[in-house]
Design a protein that fits this description.
Six copies of one chain form a homohexamer. By secondary structure, the first copy, chain A, is α+β, with helices and mostly antiparallel strands. Helix content of chain A is 37%, strand content 28%. Chain A starts with a strand and ends with a helix.
């Protein structure tokens, strides 16, 4: 029954890469905690780089500055 | 003051259906816990089927396979 | 596959009341969107009243003031 | 290491305003709890007004009614 | 900068198992998307089995029924 | 109507400090976006240091290592 929520920057991540994240996160719960994969849910949320900040600076701005 | 967050697959759900979800979830908190509807907040998040997986497989792929 | 997350104040809500919330939220998704109840997940989070604020004032304080 | 998640209605908020939110939320954690700003993360989520309800009524509808 | 949130049932999961989840989820983001592990954050939330439901029935009750 | 969710490590943060976070986060939304403080909600979640990781290492372990 685990739920995994993965937030990443919106960077045109392909459906194939997303499928790998879903598969890998599900397998992690199986391997570490013996969870049933059939009831493991993974959700990926893509966040605009204007909407994400670290160190008080947006990711958009950080990339411009090469941080 | 309750907060209800509902995540559903992005399937062109109409504003009318969303309004029903908002109304129904609010009423549920009133009925079960006697909460004040005026301060009950409902948020609906629609998740792309590529970004949602169960059993290690994305919902996009599950639908293709008829799962 | 819907996920419902309900945040309420931590007020010694009984397991029976929680079961009613789980049942009711699941039924809402069935009724409004025709979702499969077997894959509908509901999570209830109970938040300490010191940790929840509205109008810039914690719920603990609001209750003291009769707000 | 704090994480701040800010959900606001989707109202064409500018990147400048978002940058102010990121800066201000980060500074708040520094000022109140002495947290390291370099590891403070802020995420802003913009929610469609059809998808957000209070008092059992969507924000879209509330605005129409002047609530 | 990815954030991974893992919700599991509260079952006396050991700190060692949690450390494995943290390590594995971080590595997944490195392997699939080439993310920097130093800025990858993982949070594990443990949910009481009374507070988690599937199919309209709490996990506490499901376990009693052997579901 | 904004919602602010602040996740911090569980470190015996006092009710007074939490009240400052609630007040400050609410004021931030007023100052930057002109939001109504009366409908601004702030929730603080305290996360056990075993349950929070950065760089693939739990905060418990990071503190032991002086990271």
């Amino acid at each position: 029954m685990p739920l995994v929520n993965i937030k990443i920057a919106k960077d045109n991540v392909s459906a194939e890469k997303k499928a790998e994240l879903i598969k890998g996160a599900t397998q992690l719960l199986v391997d570490v905690l013996g969870k049933n994969p059939q009831t493991t849910v993974v959700i990926i949320e893509e966040v605009d780089t204007d909407n994400w900040g670290i160190g008080g600076i947006s990711v958009t701005e950080r990339r411009k500055q090469g941080l």
